[in-house]
Design a protein that fits this description.
The chain is mainly α and 461 residues long. It contains 24 helices and 2 strands. Strands 1-2 form a two-stranded antiparallel ribbon. Bound molecules: fe (ii) ion (2 copies). The site of one fe (ii) ion (FE2) has 5 residues, from helix 20.
Length: 461
C-alpha cells in the first residue's frame, strides 16, 4: 500500500524559540473551560497577580515563577470533575464556577450546597444527597481540594517547573488564618505565590460577575482571614491605577499578559519539551472521567503502532503521537454529567459532545507550537462517507494522519470499558471495524492496526 501522496500535512519549517508563557498561557483557556470560568480567567488572574507582585517589589525571577503558578493553578482541576458531578448530582462545570464565589464560611458553604445539589432530582434523592454532604462538608471539601492540588503540583513537576511553582499550585486553597485546605497552613507557612494566586482568582471571579467595587470588597473583606494583609494592601495600591482595570477588561488580555516582565522566559523548541507538554495536557483530559482514564495515551500508542506499520518516518510519527495525545482536549468543555452518563444521551447532550473536536481544534490553533496538529485533532470523528462530525467532510478531505488517529481512537473506545457498556473483546472490535471500512475507516489503517497488534502480541510472547 502507498500513502506517500498524503504525507504533506506536517510542515517542515522549524519553529522560532518558544515563549513558555505563550504555550502555557494559551493552554490555560482549556483549563478555564473545565472550571466553567469565562474564557481568559487564568490569564486575567495572572495579570492581577503580576500587579500585586510588582506592588511588593517581588524579584523578577520570583515573578516568573509566580506567573506559572497562577497560569497553571487549575491544571489539577479536571481530576475532581467526576467526583463533583457524582457526589453533588449536578453539572460539575456550573458547580465549580459558582463555588468560586462562596465566602468559605460554614453557613455560606451549606447554603451553596442546598442551592446546587441534585437540582433536577426528586425531593427524596435531593434530601438524601444534601444530608450526606452536609454531615461531611469539611471532609468532602478537603478530599476534592487534595485531589486537585496534589495532581496539579505533580503535573507541574513533570513539566520540570521548580518546586516553588508546584508549591504555589498545591497550596492555592490555603487561607491566611489556617481555615483553608488541604493542609490548613497558616500565615507565612503558605507559599506567597499561592496566596497571591488565590487573591487573583477572587479578583477575577468577582470582577467578571459583579464589577470592580465588588472585587475590591471581596479582597479587603478577606484580609487576615483568606489573605496576607500585606498582599491586600498591595492589591489596593495596584487597583488605584485605572490602567490596571483597563488591562483586566481588555479582550486581548493574552497580548498584555505575555508582555509582562514575568513572562519573558523563552526556550528553544525541542521535541522532548513538546512531548512533555502534550503528555501533561493528555493527563488533564484523561483525569476528567474515570471512564476515559488513559484513553489519550492508549490512542496515541495505537496511532503510533499504525504509523510504524505504514512506514511513516520517526519525526512524522512523533508529531502524530502528540496530535493523538491532544485529540480530545475539547472534552474539557463537556460536563461529566454527560461524559459519565450511563443512559442514552438526549439531543442537547449529544450536540455538546459533537462539538468537542471543534474545541480541540480551536484551542490547539491558538498555540504556536501545536497549531499544525489542530486540524488533525479537529477531524478525528469525521468519516470517509461524510457522515461524521463536526464538519461532515469525507474522502480525500481527510488526511492520512487523521485516518490513523480515527482508527486508533475508535479501537481504544470500543475495547475499553465505558459507562454505557462493558469492554468488547478485541476480535469483536476488529470485526466491527472491518464492516465499516471505506464508510468510516481507511482499510489500509485498519489492516496496519491488525498487523501492528499481531506484531506486539508476538513480541511480548
Ligand atoms: Fe473524541
Ligand atoms: Fe478520543
Amino acid at each position: 500500500m502507498t500513502f506517500s501522496h498524503y504525507e504533506k500535512t506536517r510542515p517542515e519549517h522549524p519553529l522560532p524559540p518558544l515563549q513558555m508563557a505563550e504555550v502555557f498561557g494559551m493552554f490555560s483557556y482549556a483549563l478555564d473551560m473545565t472550571e466553567g470560568q469565562p474564557s481568559g480567567h487564568s490569564l486575567r488572574s495572572t495579570w492581577v497577580g503580576a500587579h500585586v507582585a510588582q506592588a511588593i517589589d517581588m524579584p523578577i525571577d520570583m515573578q516568573s515563577e509566580l506567573f506559572f503558578s497562577i497560569v497553571l493553578k487549575d491544571i489539577g482541576c479536571s481530576s475532581n470533575a467526576a467526583p463533583v458531578a457524582k457526589l453533588f448530582q449536578t453539572d460539575d462545570i456550573t458547580f465549580k464556577r459558582d463555588y468560586k464565589t462562596v465566602d468559605g464560611s460554614l453557613r455560606g458553604t451549606l447554603q451553596f450546597v442546598l442551592n446546587q445539589t441534585a437540582r433536577n432530582a426528586g425531593f427524596f434523592t435531593r434530601m438524601k444527597t444534601i444530608t450526606k454532604i452536609a454531615t461531611n462538608t469539611d471532609q468532602i471539601t478537603k478530599d476534592l481540594i487534595t485531589t486537585r492540588c496534589e495532581r496539579g503540583a505533580r503535573i507541574a513537576q513533570q513539566l520540570q517547573f521548580s518546586d516553588r511553582v508546584a508549591d504555589g499550585i498545591a497550596a492555592l486553597d490555603e487561607h491566611w488564618d489556617g481555615s483553608g485546605a488541604p493542609k490548613r497552613l497558616r500565615g507565612k507557612d503558605i507559599p506567597q505565590a499561592a496566596n497571591i494566586a488565590l487573591l487573583s482568582q477572587v479578583v477575577d471571579v468577582f470582577h467578571s460577575e459583579h464589577g470592580a467595587t465588588a472585587a475590591i470588597e471581596a479582597v479587603t473583606g478577606r484580609s487576615g482571614t483568606w489573605f496576607d494583609p500585606i498582599l491586600v494592601k498591595a492589591f489596593v495600591k495596584a487597583a488605584d491605577d485605572p490602567a490596571f482595570w483597563l488591562g483586566l477588561r481588555d479582550r486581548d488580555i493574552a497580548t498584555r499578559v505575555f508582555a509582562l516582565p514575568g513572562a519573558q522566559q523563552t526556550r528553544d523548541v525541542h521535541d522532548d519539551f513538546l512531548d512533555d507538554v502534550a503528555a501533561a495536557f493528555a493527563q488533564v483530559v484523561d483525569a476528567k472521567s474515570p471512564f476515559t482514564a488513559d484513553h489519550s495515551s492508549r490512542t496515541a500508542f495505537y496511532a503510533d503502532l499504525i504509523a510504524e506499520e505504514i512506514g511513516l518516518s520517526r519525526p512524522h510519527r512523533r508529531w502524530l503521537y502528540r496530535a493523538s495525545l491532544l485529540h480530545d482536549l475539547g472534552k474539557l468543555a463537556v460536563s461529566n454529567r454527560i461524559l459519565d452518563k450511563a443512559g442514552k444521551l438526549n439531543e442537547e447532550e449529544w450536540t455538546i459532545v459533537r462539538a468537542h473536536p471543534f474545541h480541540s481544534e480551536r484551542l490547539l490553533k491558538q498555540i504556536t507550537a501545536f497549531q499544525d496538529i489542530a486540524s488533525i485533532a479537529g477531524a478525528h470523528h469525521e468519516r470517509l462517507d461524510g457522515r461524521g462530525y463536526p464538519y461532515g467532510i469525507g474522502g480525500n478531505e481527510i488526511a492520512l494522519e487523521t485516518r490513523i488517529l480515527t482508527v486508533a481512537d475508535v479501537f481504544d473506545a470500543l475495547s475499553a470499558h465505558r459507562p454505557y457498556r462493558d469492554a468488547l473483546p478485541i476480535n469483536d472490535v476488529l470485526a466491527m471495524m472491518d464492516r465499516d471500512i471505506d464508510r468510516a475507516f481507511d482499510g489500509g489503517c485498519v489492516a496496519a492496526l491488525k498487523s501492528g497488534l499481531h506484531r506486539i502480541k508476538h513480541r511480548v510472547a
